[in-house]
Amino acid sequence: METGNQTRxxxxxxxxxxxxxxxxPLLFCLFLSMYLVTVLGNLxxxxxxxxxxxxxxxxxxxxxxxxxxxxxxxSTTVPKMLVNIQTQSKAITYAGCITQMCFFMVFGGMxxxxxxxxxxxxxxxxxxxxxxxxxMNPHLCGLLVLGSWLISLIYSLIQSLLMLRLSFCTNxxxxxxxxxxxxxIMLACSDTLINHILLYMVTGLLGIVPFLGILFSYIRIxxxxxxxxxxxxxxxxxxxxxxxxxxxSLFYGTGLGVYLSSDAPSWRGMMxxxxxxxxxxxxxxxxxSLRNRDIKGALQKVLERTLYVP
Length: 310
Prior knowledge:
This protein has eleven helices and three strands. 75% of the residues lie in helices and 3% in strands. The protein has a three-stranded mixed sheet with strand order 2-1-3. It has helices spanning 24-51, 58-75, 78-87, 94-127, 132-135, 138-164, 181-187, 193-226, 231-260, 267-290, 293-307; strands at residues 11-14, 91-93, 173-174. It has 310 residues and is mainly α.
């Protein structure tokens, strides 16, 4: 590695999970399996929703975009880690690190916004069922998804451009399995005040504010459900929200914990990162398919058409 401020000639070093070479084959098989399950599961969700006209509704439109974002989210980190394990290298180029950060923020931001939009969709469906077709019209749904992509992309580009202005001297070691933004900022030997201000400001705006929106939506949803007189009606209402609530709890519980304590990288923080960057995208297809009769029916039809031999 070069020293000094010539960042373009240097590589970052990703320490990953273990320095022991004996653990590398196990880590490779574990993360490769999780990656393949995630991609295949989310592709099946997208295929099922796209192929069944009965699922062309706002809820499944958002779920389809969430599956697409999850595929991108996990694909920004795991493939590079698998390549490094296979080649017994821990290096990632400066350009590769910035690119990884950029896409990670885009897809991570999309996950955040889509979970919020899906909570709003459930709020309207349960609290204002008669007005649901009018409020959640195709035009609004398209604008919500497009706006989510644009905001995520703009923030990612701004943060990436701010990273390009930083100089790195001698320390290029990141104690993580991917180029984590906060840790990379800490390695800079130039002024990082603007980067830190933007990082924590956006963590609040794009993390805590959407979470509060989701929390408010579910408080209203639970309040409405409790007023339903029949037990069967309450069960159906809760079942439509259970999958989304499980995903929100796992994603936000680990994601916010990592970013609120990112100044102190640790093994615990790295495992929390795995939960929301790898485990959550992998579990989403199971959560939504196993708890949703419509998705299960659509997947069954897709598999039957695929396996059918005339």
